[in-house]
Each structure stands twice: as C-alpha cells, then as structure tokens.
Amino acid sequence: MVKVGIVGGTGYTGVELLRLLAAHPEVELVMITSRSEAGLPVADMFPNLRGHVDLAFSVPDPAALATCDVVFFATPNGVAMQSVPALLEAGVKVIDLAADFRLKDTEEWAQWYGQPHACPQLLDEAVYGLSEVNRAAISEARLIANPGCYPTAVQLGLLPLLEKGLVDTGRLIADCKSGVSGAGRKAAVSALLCETSENFKAYGVAGHRHWPEIRQGLNAAVEGNVGLTFVPHLTPMLRGIHATLYATLLNSDDATDADLQALYEQRYASEPFVDVLPMGSHPETRSVKGANTCRIAIHRPQGADTVVILSVIDNLVKGAAGQAVQNMNILCGLPETAGLSGIALVP
Amino acid sequence: MVKVGIVGGTGYTGVELLRLLAAHPEVELVMITSRSEAGLPVADMFPNLRGHVDLAFSVPDPAALATCDVVFFATPNGVAMQSVPALLEAGVKVIDLAADFRLKDTEEWAQWYGQPHACPQLLDEAVYGLSEVNRAAISEARLIANPGCYPTAVQLGLLPLLEKGLVDTGRLIADCKSGVSGAGRKAAVSALLCETSENFKAYGVAGHRHWPEIRQGLNAAVEGNVGLTFVPHLTPMLRGIHATLYATLLNSDDATDADLQALYEQRYASEPFVDVLPMGSHPETRSVKGANTCRIAIHRPQGADTVVILSVIDNLVKGAAGQAVQNMNILCGLPETAGLSGIALVP
Amino acid sequence: MVKVGIVGGTGYTGVELLRLLAAHPEVELVMITSRSEAGLPVADMFPNLRGHVDLAFSVPDPAALATCDVVFFATPNGVAMQSVPALLEAGVKVIDLAADFRLKDTEEWAQWYGQPHACPQLLDEAVYGLSEVNRAAISEARLIANPGCYPTAVQLGLLPLLEKGLVDTGRLIADCKSGVSGAGRKAAVSALLCETSENFKAYGVAGHRHWPEIRQGLNAAVEGNVGLTFVPHLTPMLRGIHATLYATLLNSDDATDADLQALYEQRYASEPFVDVLPMGSHPETRSVKGANTCRIAIHRPQGADTVVILSVIDNLVKGAAGQAVQNMNILCGLPETAGLSGIALVP
Amino acid sequence: MVKVGIVGGTGYTGVELLRLLAAHPEVELVMITSRSEAGLPVADMFPNLRGHVDLAFSVPDPAALATCDVVFFATPNGVAMQSVPALLEAGVKVIDLAADFRLKDTEEWAQWYGQPHACPQLLDEAVYGLSEVNRAAISEARLIANPGCYPTAVQLGLLPLLEKGLVDTGRLIADCKSGVSGAGRKAAVSALLCETSENFKAYGVAGHRHWPEIRQGLNAAVEGNVGLTFVPHLTPMLRGIHATLYATLLNSDDATDADLQALYEQRYASEPFVDVLPMGSHPETRSVKGANTCRIAIHRPQGADTVVILSVIDNLVKGAAGQAVQNMNILCGLPETAGLSGIALVP
Predict the structure, then answer these.
(1) C184 exposed, middle or buried (CB, 10 Å; 0-12, 13-18, 19+)?
(2) Residue C285 and residue B310: Cβ atoms within 8 Å?
(3) What does the pLDDT profile of chain B (347 residues) look like in tens digits?
(4) DSSP assignment, residue A52?
C-alpha cells in the first residue's frame, strides 16, 4: 500500500482527490492537512465522504508528512514551493496540483503568478505530469507538476496535429468553456450561483495563467514558438471543460490529404484515458463527468482547411485530481488505471 | 458470476443500472434489450459507457432471457407483467424496477395504473424490495418489486416512528421534492430544460401513484391505516429526492420523552445504506448523488410536538437502480454492498 | 415626480429596486448610496442597467437623503434603525426592506437578530407593509417595514383560512422553498454555485428569523397564538419562493363544507397582485419571475380534512423590491400598480 | 393603434412576442392562432400572461388575419411561405420570425431547409430585418425576414471590421454558445433538462442552417465571399447567445493601427439597441436577459493580429421576438424603441 498525505484538502480538488483515493485499492490515506480546519472531521465538511473517510484535518506537520510515500499538494499557488524541497530531501515523492512547478521559465512564472519563485532550482527537475507526453519521465520523477485543467484539454486536442507538422503553428485558437468549479471553493461574489447561473461570459481574454502553460507544451511539440489565442469562458455548470480548437492546415499535400481521424486514433491507441470518437462526433462534457477521460472529436467543416477539434474533460478529474492519481500510479509502479475506472455519471 | 439481462435499457434507470452493473465485480452483463433501438451499441446512446459496456441493444427474446440468472425490467409500467410469468417458470429471478408488482391489491393497482393487472396471481408472491424491511423475504424471493423513489425516501424516514407507535398515524405529511430525472427520458414538453429549469412547482397534489404505495408500506408498519398527505414537487436539478416529513408526537410520556435520535440510530445501526446524521443536521441531496445511500436527520423544532424528519436519496440509485442491485445482491447471496460502494460526486 | 433615494444598493434587492424604479413613470431616482463602492457608476456593477441608470454610488449623506421624498433602505439588518429617526424628523418617508421594523416586540427582535434594537420607540409606529392586510395604514404611514419574502408567501397563502376561522390554528405547517438569491449577494461559500447547484436541502429547521415574523402576522389574523412549523429549503435556482402550506379543517360543518376556492377568490378579488388560480392548479414560480404577483392555488387531496395551499412569489419582487415599490405607490398616493405591470419572463 | 395578429404562438418565440406586444403602448393584439390549441386561453398555456393577455388561440383564418395591420409568423420553417402571398395581397404587412425569407438564393434555401421554396418570387422583395444594416429598406417593406439568433449576434459583432476592410475575410471564425430555448418548445429528448443541464457540447459543426445566412450578410458587407467557420454550442441555461468572434487583422498600417474601439463606437453611436462596452470588457449574457440589446466588446490579446470580438444577445429578444417588434416599429413609423425599453433581469 502506498502511504499518501494531502496538504490542503478543503477545496474542490481536495474533495475529489479524497473521493478517488478513498476508493483506490493500493492507497492508504494517512493524513490530510488544513491549518484553518484542523480538528474537523473531513466528512463533516464533505458529507459525501461519511463512511468512506474517517480522517480529521490536521495541522500541516513536516515530520509527519515526511513519513508518507507520496504527498499531494492541493493548495493555492505559491504554497507548495515553500515545503517541497524538505519533503524531497526526506525521500517523499510530491505531486503538486497547483501551478508552482508547471512553468520552466522562472521569470515567466514570476510574471504570471505575481511573486518570485521560492525554489527555482527545482523547476528543471519537476516533470510536467501529462502522461500522454511524459510517461517515462513521470515514472522516474520525484516531483510532478500536475497540469492545469485548460492545458490538459487543449494540449491533448492539439498535440497530434502539431507533432506531425500539419498545421500553421502561428495561428492556433483555443476557445475554451469551463464549469464553475474551476473557480475553486473560496468565498467570492463572482462564483455565487446568482452571478454564474443562467449566464455565460468570457473572462481573462487579455491574458490567463494557463496561456503560457499551454504554449510551453505546444512549443515543445513543435520545437519552436506557436502563436496561440486562448479565450476561456465560464459556463453555468459544476464540472467540465469543453475546448473548441481551431487550426489551419498547411497548404501542402501532406496536410490537406492527411487522414486526421486515423492520425488521432493512432496517436492515442494505447492511452487508457484518451478516447477518440468517430469522425464527426460531438463529445459532451457530461460523458466524462467524474471520469478520468478525455474525449476528442475531429471535424473539418465543409472540407475547408480549417480543422476543428473538440476536446472534453472533467476539470476536477482528468484536469486535476484524477490526473494526479494517474501520475501517482505511474511513479509508484502501479497499474496506470488503478482506482480510476469509475464511469461518468449520466445524467 | 451472475448472468444478468436487462429488459428496456434506454431510460435513465437503464443507463444507471448499466453504470452500476458494468462495474460490479460479480456480474456478467449478457444482454440488454430495446425493441426500438435493437442493433445500436449501448455506448452510442450513452457515451459515458464507451470502453465499459460493449453490448448492443437486442430485440427482447424470451429464450435468450431465460438463460440469465437474473433479469431486471427497466420498462414502463405494465410491460414487465406480460413477460414475468414465463421467466419465473424458466427459473430466472426477476427484479422489476417499474410498478407492476408493488401494490398487493389488484383493484387498487388497476385504478392507479389505468389498466387491469395481467398476472394478479403473482402479486402475493412478489416481495417488495425495501431491504431495510424485507431482507429475509428478499433473500428467498423469485420476484422482486423494486420500490419507487418517493416511497423509498418516505418509508425510510417515517418507519422508525411508526414502528414504535410514537406518532399520530392519522395525520402524516410527506412534502417531497424530486429532481427532473424522475420524469424519465421520454420526449415530453413538460420535462424540457426550458420548462423545468429556474422553476419550482408541485404536481399531482390531487393524487399520485406513489401515494398508495407509500400507504401500503406504512399501513404494514402500524398494522392499520395511516392518514397521509403526499405532495410531490419538481425541483430544477438532475437527481435527488428530499423528503420533508411531518408527524405529531402522541400526547403520552413514551412519545414526548422519546430519544428520537437514538431510536433512529438503533433502527438503522446495521443498515449499510442508511446513514442517520447527527441531531439537527440538514442532509443535502448532493451528499448522495450517485450513491446508494439514504441520509436522514431528525428535528423537533422549538421542542414542540411536531417532529420533522429530513430524508434524502438519489432517485436513480437508492430510489431505483442501486436498490435493484442491492436486491440482486441479497437474493443471489452476494455481499449486500457488492458493486455499491461508490462515493457521491461532490460538487 | 417622487424624489427617491436608496441606501445600500449593491445587493440583489438593490439592483431589483433600481430595475423597477428606473422604469417607474412617477419616480425620479436622485441618489443611491454605498460606502464601499462610492464613486462607482451603478451600471459598472450591474451592466443590465447600462443606458437606464446613470447614477454612481455615493457616500451616504444624511443631509442629501433628507432632500428625498422617499428613502428605501436595502441594507443589512440593523443598519436602517440607526438612520431612520433623523430622516423621519426631516419629513422623509422611509421604506425599510430589511427586518429592523418588522417585529413589534423589542425583546423578540433582539433575540432573533442578536443585538438590541436602536430605536424601539418607532416599532409601534412602523406599519408592516403587507398591503393586502394594511393598505389603509400604509397610505398614512411615515415608516414602512417591508415584509420578508417567506412571510409574504406564507401569510397571503394562509390568511383567508385563518380570518374565517376554518382551520386548527395550533397545527399549521409551512414547507417553503426558496431560490438562492434569498441568500443575498455577499461572498459566502454556502451560496457558491458549486455548493447550491444540483442540490436541495432544508436549513434553519431549528429556528429561522422569518418564523416570528410570520407568527406575528398570523396571530393578528386570529387574535391569538398560532402553532406554526416552518421549514425553509434552498432550491437550485435564482429567484422564486414556493410555499406549500398545510392546515387541518376544523371538525365543524362550517369548515368541512366551506367553498375554499370561492373564499380565496373573494378575499383577493380586488387585489391587483394576488392571483387565485383555478381549483386544483399547480402554480409555478417561473410564472411570477420578475413580476410583483403572488399566485395561489387551493387543494384538498382526496377530500380529506387537510387543506394544501400552494403560494408562489418572486422573492426579489413581491417578496422584496416590488412590494416596496407597491408600498411607495400607496403612501405617495400613486396608482398602486404604477411601475409594477411587468410580465414574468418565461422561459 | 396597430392591429396585430400572430400565427403560431405556442413556442418560446411566441410567448416572448406576446410578453412584448401585450405591454406595447401602440399595439392592439387582435388574434393569435394555433391549429392544435384552438380554443385554449393563451394564459392557460403560459400562466405568466394571466391578467395581461385575454385572447384564446384560434384556428388560423386567412380572412381574419387579413384584417390585421401586421401579422407575425412564429411558425416552424416552411409554414409562413404558404400564406404570405395572400396576406401581402390583402395589404397586410408580414414579419416572419422563421427562416422562410432569409436567404436570397432559392437553391441554397432548398438545400438547407430540405424542401423547395413555395414562393421564390418574394425572396427578392423580402427585406432582411437587421435594422442596423437595413433600416431604410425595412421602413418601406411589406415583408420582413426576421434574422436568426446566431446571425444577429455574429453579424453585429463582425460588421464594423468587415465594412472597413480591416481583416482577412477568408478566415473568420464564429464560436457561438446558445441557451437551450434556441431549440424551441417541442417534445424532443435532446432538449430535456436531463440531457442538457450540467452539460456542454458543440453541435452541427459539419453544417448549420445559420451558416449560409451569416455568410450572406457578411458577403454583402464585403461585396465578395467570406470564409467562415461557424461552430454552435449548447450551454446549460434558458436564454442567451454569446458569440466569440475571431478575425485576423490585415498586414497593413490601416489595419494594425486602427482604433477598433472607436470604430465600433462610431458604427453603433446612433443605434438604440447596440451597446459597445469599454475596451477589454467581458459582456455577460445575463446583462441582456429579457432585453432587446446586443452588447459588444473588442479585444486584441497581447496586441497580436488576432482580434477577438465578444457579442451577446438574448436569443428570444434581439435574436427573435424583440427584433421582430423593432422591425414592426420601423415599418409602422413608430418610435423604434416603443415597447422595447425593458431592463434585463439580473439575477
């Protein structure tokens, strides 16, 4: 059994991690910390866990955390980087669900997250935990930067096209829609039901923290610099991300004659958590609600040179807690699907 | 492995049954029938099942069904009663999720369901599948009438009071609220998002088919006739039933001094799927979303003689498919919780 | 034109008041105050008001407010009572949408609102602004206590029965369901979309501030003390209250033979904002969304002695801002329906 | 007073038209037809109209309709074109809210609507009722083709850029999101709450009927042929369209130095129903809920050459019934804003 600790478990990523780990056959959940809620039984805050999780929140204690095999950080950005070096030194493997180790460029990180990075020396070592790209490195890592929700949906959707060099990399568009749980479980007027229900809006068009993260991943795939317009939107539902991705096929026979459906199916043939739908499908976010799956469909409307890729995930699962468990499975040598075979809840 | 067939799997009860059975460790799902959708892969209709259920819908074939150990009927009312006698004769155990075998009184059935009953001779044999009341009988049954959703929430909420004779049985009130999935997956204007979202209403106040079913169960508990006012409401969400139950304590020392909290905790102490919350709690329907759990809380506002019981279930799980699997587990001698340990999805 | 000021306009009651007053033919909106948002154009906070309201929030200034004919307080409980005496002295008429002047009993007020009352001497003078009961007094009042949302729906639903002495006043039940806007526009985890959507729950069963307010109104109708069980619930929608009311007919010929439908129709025959639906109807909250209407239906299931009254309002309109404008119309001698003829938005 | 008739008033466009016309100061509503509901009081189907509309549905009667000044068709596609010629001949002005007269090319119409056109001779005369483009022609028209909902949001968003020749017209993208009321009020599984709530999906990516309609309008603006990728999505709410529009600035000084904000503000300076928000804003669909307004914001993320335009409308108002009333006002010589000054309902 893998001994697991969670730092900061009072948000939606935290409760989802608990839901998955409590049912994981190879995990022993030994502690979950929250400075503000120390002493409170976890199931008092999240009654869905009654009968499944008996732990109470505890004050974060480095010595206790050091006895874990794996520690997940489900904390706000900027917290994990304070504690990670000591844990790594103690031999603990760390998976950070926040953004502290996602960007390789220290200055870019500081710019987007509004603070200097506390341990830039670890940025090189940290492995970006998108297993469909970095599986081998993940299996040997000490420190995983778990990808953001939008970056997961967008990269899985665009990578096959970029890896094959079929599209104009200077003019990529990611029009993304997210459920409100992406805003987290903090008291904020902007996330009230009365501000978000029966409403649809874009936000952060001028610049969003996931933009450099997505670009970093796409740049690596093309070994260059992509031009990316990224527009996130808030849609009135709890969970789910729908990425609608636009790319222009290059004006070459290779590109215009490519069998895109076959390309995607081959790229993801052995991936347990990426499902390429039949050509012309319209994936629904609810088809992955609660599941660690990304479903993708490819379109080329009217046979023109604009390719439209539709990519859906559950932002709390494949976009956060599920992907974190997937990374844990890989780095602990467990079957990659252990504890992740839950079926999406429809309706 | 129990060989299982499903008759009529295109509704919400059907897809939920598939979700649960596909993940059940002791079940082999061998066929699912739908006359109208025969030939269609189940996962084409319900993409959440892609990768989990490989079956296609098939035309209902009595001979094929007769090779199953257990057959579930997830059909409209009045369908199961046509086919059940032959299946029982063939040695198949049957669990009907519709209402065909719920009422013991043939005339009452005919009155509420608007047709004569096709096999009244089975009404006595059929066991009402509320395991918290009829576990022993279920374990030996050939034919289970799976309880309705409202009746499950209301009976579990009221039974402890009635069994102990603490309340006025002539003046029970069940004010119940249901998510829209209770209306089923049929094309009907009344269940459109645009008719039900941002809207709350009562319906069927003059009479609802679950009223005689609830009364039958409560009557059995008091060995008499209860007076019950039952008002169902539609609430704008997918899943969940919240029953708010009102009863008047009898004017006796036994009643007014009773420790109701202890009474409920003892009544359900060994029940794996009934969770009595601490005194004064407010159970949320989302705390059981996707789970086979009924959560109950007891209130006695201002210490007066009106007891208020709050009882929540997921109408598609403990109120339908989950309870059906629980019944299957019992009658097949499997652990009662097999395949039913899923944790509710929050948020 | 009536010169109107609003104190505290940043909540949902405030924006609704602005929506109604901006379109009111006899109102000149002269100021709206908010200490925290002073200087911000109102339409920057509420873009639906762009082109309709040009005011910016201003710091509350007693001298400026004293130049208004009418001042509405849309402030948290306990704020209005600090400023009202000076305004009255200056000859301004005041309508308080909060609870400061709703209860006549100073001690009861202090107990439920957790603070001593700042000007108990005004409690007697303040007129409870339920025009269907107190129209004459409202027309001559200086100070109106605008009723709470639940109390409006419950009192309008129960009053005809109580005024005629037809039911057991010791055993009234009000099972009420409210949209989330009733919780206001403050940053609170409990009102997040992710805590309230796809969820239904009761709250405050042990005691809610609207309980004494409702009782005070019902007590006046019966000239005695009613026994009332009041259970509020939160339903996942923006607006609307649905009160399901239960009363037991007295065991007398007068009561059991009463034509309840006729009784309600007569009681509200000349009321512009109470609509009695045909016997057996199920009023929907959306039928009053945005409108100052209360719709009521009467049921007597199975002809038994339990009467079920269904009463719906928009909590922000007839339950708050609309009723406040109705009160302003009455006390300013305007037509009672001025500015209140908007039709509910369906869907 | 303008005497108005409505043909086919049982859908959401119909009830919205009734809501607007019932409150219109210059309109006398004389008949509303529905073959299937003839005899039913309108307010029985739509209780929000109780007290506001006393009409009952009547069987469509050409002679009676011929006595109207204006007749609105709120019928399915293909119905209006059967009756319009006779009405025009009788001197009635016709506004068709369906698609019968929107496309100028008969063959294109037949291809997208799956039937031959019944009166192609009227296609030239019919005026496309986007008043921001065709006001003068509308004022003299006998027959108005009221624009579709997506086409309204997209054209108003893109026209200023196209009219000035600032962007690459071969590579326009319209990523649009619609509330479910766009699917109409017909019994269909796909529009059930349980199929659309808590779900987000694209649809019709291969081809949607609004694609040729949008192109026709954009082509006219550029006097050429635009390349347009149009992807509609369904978002879980009642009302609202959010169009996110992408265009590439031409590589010229005119284009890259253009003050886009000023351009839009000037283009719409005298338009009563188009509101250009400050640069960098994010319009919310709820800011136009129930209102006849289109709100637009312009973005140029990171100063690159991709322009992002955000355009929101209420699909039932500016995208259907409100725009139809606006057209009626223009062709009847009424003030263009008559009956259309309602403020959006927030929350």
Answers:
(1) middle
(2) no
(3) 999 999 998 999 999 999 999 999 999 999 999 999 999 999 999 999 999 999 999 999 999 999 999 999 999 999 999 999 999 999 999 999 999 999 999 999 999 999 999 999 999 999 999 999 999 999 999 999 999 999 999 999 999 999 999 999 999 999 999 999 999 999 999 999 999 999 999 999 999 999 999 999 999 999 999 999 999 999 999 999 999 999 999 999 889 899 999 999 999 999 999 999 999 899 999 999 999 999 999 999 999 999 999 999 999 999 999 999 999 999 999 999 999 999 999 99
(4) T
Q: List D residues 10-39 in contact with B (Cβ-Cβ < 8 A).
A: 12
- CB pair distance less than 8 Å for D289 and C15: no
CB atoms within 10 A of CB A335: 13
For the D150-315 domain, the top CATH level (class) is: alpha beta
Distance from CA of A271 to the nearest CA of D (A): 23
Closest CA to A133 of A68, A60, A218: A218
E strand segments, chain C = 2-7, 27-33, 70-73, 93-96, 127-128, 143-145, 172-178, 201-202, 228-234, 241-248, 274-276, 294-299, 306-313
| Closest residue, chain D, to B190 (C-alpha) | D187
Neighbours of chain B (3+ CB pairs under 8 A): A, C, D
Catalytic residues of D, by residue number, are 149
> In a 10 Å sphere around its CB, with 0-12 CB exposed, 13-18 middle and 19+ buried, how is residue A259 labelled?
exposed
Decide if B347 and C203 are in contact by the 8 Å CB cutoff.
Answer: no
CB hemisphere CA count around D154 (13 angstroms)? 31
Token pair for D152: 């309204």
Fold of C2-125: Rossmann fold (3.40.50)
Give the side-chain half-sphere CA count within 13 A for A93.
22
Q: Is there a shared CATH topology between the C2-125 domain and the C150-315 domain?
A: no
For A:175-194, CB contacts with C below 8 A are: 180-181, 183, 185-189, 191-194
Distance from CA of D163 to the nearest CA of B (A): 37
User: In CATH, which of 3.30.450.80, 3.30.70.20, 3.40.50.620, 3.30.360.10 is domain A150-314?
Assistant: 3.30.360.10
DSSP state of D192: B
The CA–CA distances, whole Å, from D225 to A126, D130, D244 equal 50, 20, 21
The answer to whether residue A290 neighbours chain B at the CB level (below 8 Å) is yes
> How many residues in chain B?
347
Question: Cβ(D248)–Cβ(D300) under 8 Å?
Answer: no
Q: Which chains touch A (3 or more CB pairs under 8 A)?
A: B, C, D
Of C202, C237, C308, the CB nearest to B229: C308
* Domain ranges, ordered by start, for chain C: 2-125, 150-315
| Chain B contact set for A10 (CB, 8 A) | none
Q: How far apart are CA C318 and CA C311, in angstroms?
A: 12
Q: Distance between terminal CA atoms of chain B?
A: 34
Strands of the D70-73 sheet, one edge to the other? D27-33, D2-7, D70-73, D93-96, D143-145, D127-128
Query: Locate tokens 């109106």: which residue?
Result: C144
Say whether residue B275 is in contact with chain A using an 8 A CB cutoff: yes
Query: Cα separation of D123 and D289, whole Å?
Result: 32
CB B56 within 8 A of CB B39: yes
Q: Which of C197, C271, C345 to mutate to test the interface with D (most CBs of D within 10 A)?
A: C345
> Does ipTM come in above 0.90?
yes
Residues of B in Cβ contact (< 8 Å) with D12: 194
Tokens of B237: 């969400």
Cβ-count burial of D57 within 10 angstroms (0-12 exposed, 13-18 middle, 19+ buried)? buried
Residue contacts between A and C (CB atoms, under 8 Å): 64
